[in-house]
Amino acid sequence: MRDGAQLAARIWLPEEAERTPMPAIMEYIPYRKRDITRGRDATNHAYLAGHGYVCIRVDMRGSGDSDGVLTDEYTQQEQEDGVDAIAWLAEQPWCDGNVGMMGISWGGFNSLQVAAKRPPALKAIISICSSDDLYADNMHYMGGCLLGDNLSEATVMFAFNTLPPDPVIVGNRWRDMWFDRMENSGLWLEQWVENQRRNAYWSTSSVCEYYSAIECPVYAIGGWADGFTNTVLRLMQHLEVPRKGLIGPWGHKYPHQGLPGPAIGFLQETLRWWDYWLKGKDNGIMDEPMLRAWEQDSIPPDTSYSERPGRWIGESGWPSDNISLRRYGLGPYTIAMGEGHGGPHQRDEHESSLALQSPLSVGLFAGKWCSYAATPDLPGDQREEDGGSLIFSSRQLAEPLDIFGMPVVELELSSDKPQAMLAVRLSDVAPDGKSTRVTYGLLNLSHRDSDANPEPLVPHRRYRVRIPMNGIAQRFPAGHQLRLSVSTSYWPLAWLPPEPAQVEIYPSSCALVLPERKPGEEDARLPAFDEPEEAPPLETHTFEASEHNWLLHRDLATKESTLEVVNDQGHFRIEDIGTEIRRSTREWYTTLNDDFTSARGETYTERSFKRDDWNVEIYTRSILSCDESNFFIHAQLDAYEDDYRVFSKNWEKVVPRDHM
User: Fold this and answer.
1) Contact 337, 395 (CB under 8 A)
2) CA distance 160 to 64
3) How far is Cα 194 from Cα 72, in angstroms, rounded to an integer?
4) How confident is the model at residue 351 (pLDDT cuts 50, 70, 90)?
5) Cα(81)–Cα(616) distance, integer angstroms
6) Distance (Å, rounded) from C-alpha 323 to C-alpha 517?
7) CB 268 within 8 Å of CB 530
């Protein structure tokens, strides 16, 4: 790096590259190339290298075997290091000077961010499951509401940031590097909770603030079960460079391993992209529609799916002329399909309203904000949630209805408290009454006009608010109903307001706006994706299998409800390096009766690495709780070497609630 620090990398080098230089493809993430991502890297990078590309997996500064300490996500230091790494690659004798960058999640984020720095050798990127907006469309906040995934992701990074480098790579300094990380990486949860409104902390690295800075071609990819899909639609709309978008039914996974299926030959698709932009092969990829998406068919509700039935659709541009926004008025408990425009009108102060104050049980069946498709983390039957919600249902559809885009709910309302939130859900109701959530949106009502400058509600004053839902492509079949559900809580997907509020909704002034799509003849002519391929898997030996589950505990005597999330990666050995790894995370989200200040999230992680000459264990515990005025953070870290505790640290933090 420009300051002399060194970043560690694994390189897959085609045999002929030293004679005939080739383009390079870089993945740049903090998740330990030496061991944790070794299996995924082996199947992805070896495959691409086998097709004529030098592939490089770089540990970011402060992670894995690289120098330094990682103090936050998406920093300017991280982006500058990415620029330096690309320049280094372009200068190597086995690289022809053309570099691509790709990655999923963090690697998708920083592919966009580094592209905005315009390194000369970076010729194209592939960004998967990422966001262009770190505040409004990330795992921290949604609609101005604090997400439960904020604690979950902080826990992931708390565990990663406290792991040591491998002595085989860094030598005898590994222990000093380890202690430096544990002492100085900081408590990320604190800074994420402190910044409760949109400010420079979030916007500096949000490329939605400067789309024009990206000057290289972009392939943006997501999945409907993932948390970041809206990014694909925004990038297609706002970027000015050659670009493609792809959205499947998948969760937070590479599409050749995509769940729910169908998975696709994603690595073959990436080769087409790289061949076009890095090798100049005119293979027709840019002649195909700009945006392809999997339009999902109706399916009974379930917390996990192996497959989602549907079809691929294509759009030559976005927004599409093939999609029209249609407004449906709301009546008392009804969606007036074709019977009214639903919108602002001359207000009748004596108009009847519908009162809503949801129990804290609404949200226990909501699933995870970002599904990893390894656990039963998708939303279940919405009838479980609708009992505590205000629902509006359409009549049975006379013909199929296709939507593609971001539905919007427009509501006129008042509240008896200055702070309140709403969750809105659009569901597909089958003739047997089973209800499958299609999409949803959240709004912290103090953020109704601005995420940067929230303002409390004036109790009993009427307001008009707009709540976008996440993008989706969905077909509602004839004979089914649409249902719009509204609740004042959605725990633990979103943190609770400081106290219960009763919201009055005035339905005759409300509307559901749907992006309706006409099926196009060109959909049937879309080229089929190949079947998934990858390089041979990494050889491992399993001692204990992984375990993934979501468990709901309800104590009817104490009135305590707890959602427990089990994410145990098991115990295994990587044969080619001889390292045994143990990884386990558990999360608990608890409320007591109808006490909004009883909301509490707790997480616990175990990590261990063991070889004949190396034996370390790291344990973390994080707790986020609240009262009406503050959030409270407690965190613990304990590290062991050869069964002796060698490091221990506790954190106690109080963060004032800021219209949250």
Assistant:
1) yes
2) 9
3) 14
4) confident
5) 29
6) 4
7) yes
Give the contacts of 393 (CB within 8 A, at least 6 positions apart): 333, 334, 335, 429, 481, 482, 483, 484
Q: What is the structure's pLDDT at 373?
A: 73
Mean pLDDT confidence for 565-579? 96
Nearest to 264 by CA among 173, 128, 137: 128
Read off the pLDDT of residues 601-647 as tens digits, 9 standing for 90 and up: 999 999 999 999 899 999 999 999 999 999 999 999 999 999 999 99
Pairing of strands 503-505, 354-356: antiparallel
Contact at 8 Å (CB) between 473 and 224? yes
Residues 6+ apart with CB under 8 A from 426: 407, 437, 438, 439, 440, 469, 482, 483, 484, 512
- For residues 610 and 643, what is the distance between their CA atoms, to the nearest angstrom? 11
CA 136-620-185 angle, to 5 degrees, is: 65
pLDDT band of residue 588 (cuts 50, 70, 90) is: very high
Dist CA 613 CA 549 (whole Å): 34
DSSP designation for 447: G
- Which residues touch 340 (CB under 8 Å, ≥6 apart)? 328, 329, 331
Residue with tokens 């007036």: 336
Beta bridge partners of 127: 103, 220
- Distance in angstroms (rounded) separating the CA atoms of residues 132 and 213: 12
Tell me, what's the pLDDT at 350? 67
Q: Which of 3 and 350 is assigned the larger pLDDT?
A: 3
Residue-averaged pLDDT of the chain? 96
d(CA 506, CA 508): 6
Helix (H) or strand (E) holding 49: helix 38-49
For residues 342 and 336, is the Cβ–Cβ distance under 8 A?
yes
Return the SS3 of 575. coil
**CA–CA dist 45, 40 (Å, integer):** 8
User: Computed from CA positions of residues 109, 115, 121, 126, in that sequence, does the dihedral angle turn out positive or negative?
Assistant: positive
Kindly report whether the peptide bond that precedes residue 379 is cis, defined as omega within 30 degrees of 0. no
Q: What is the pLDDT of residue 347?
A: 57
* Strand-pair category, 22-29 with 54-59: parallel
Name the burial class of residue 427, with classes exposed (0-12), middle (13-18) and buried (19+) by CB atoms within 10 angstroms of its CB: buried
Handedness of CA 525, 531, 534, 540 (dihedral sign): positive
**Average pLDDT of the segment spanning 403-429:** 98
Choose among 490, 195, 466: nearest CA to 358.
490
597/592 Cα distance (integer angstroms): 9
Nearest 5 degrees, angle CA 442-CA 445-CA 449?
100
CB 489 within 8 A of CB 358: yes
Six token digits for residue 83 = 């620029």
Strands 145-146 and 503-505: unpaired
Q: What does the block give as tokens for 329? A: 């008025």
Residue pLDDT, tens place only, 248-282: 999 999 999 999 999 999 999 999 999 999 999 99
Residue located via tokens 């995870």:
368
Contact 618, 625 (CB under 8 A): no
- Give the residue from 250, 244, 262, 257 showing the smallest Cα distance to 223: 250
Q: What is the pLDDT of residue 249?
A: 97
604-607, long-range: CB within 8 Å, 24+ apart, which pairs? 605/155, 605/158, 605/159, 606/582, 607/159, 607/162, 607/163, 607/581, 607/582, 607/583
pLDDT at 532 > cutoff 60: yes
3-state secondary structure of 173: helix
- For residue 36, pLDDT beyond 80: yes
- Is the predicted pLDDT of residue 341 greater than 60, yes or no? no
